[in-house]
Amino acid sequence: MKARPPAASRLAALLLTAALLGPLTGCAGNGEPAADRGPAASAASTPAGSPAASAAGFSPVDTGWVQLVLPMTEQALPLLELAPSRGADPKLAAWAADVAAGHRADVAELRRLRDRMGLPDTNVHEGHAMPGMVTAAHMARARQAEGAAFDRLLLRLVRDHLRQSEKISDSERRNGRGAPARDLAAALAADRADALHTAPGLPGS
Prior knowledge:
mainly alpha
């Protein structure tokens, strides 16, 4: 886990996380999968915003959503792209390819919004194993798995990613202030819900 921010910034981060995630809190440090740790130990550390974002009509909730959902989307892509070479189920590989294509378009839109908000291009959650975040530890396990074992791992991790992304995007849609952020969040939430609905089922998944 990175160094804690000053008390005032930490309070703002906690309030922002609560607004975005509700009962979903926490980032597990050191790249350990949050799903394997049980309840999260601490709230996510998210900057409270930027002067440029505020001047453009965006709230700290908008800022926090962009700075969380962008790395979530970026970090899911390498896992999705492994499906054709590591998996056994062609239906799952085709579904993963569709989800990956949508994620690439989402990344482009989120980066444009981030730049419009005047936010840095750094990942403020780097090294944090947050709910729905595909981590380095996840990727190491995925690269070692193949066939049906890879398919089960992929489906579990991507389903978790999609569920969490849908939840925080729906929260941004309801609680955000900037219309461009809320509109994009609504589109992402709908896309994630559709991907979950069309996900193929696998034995043991």
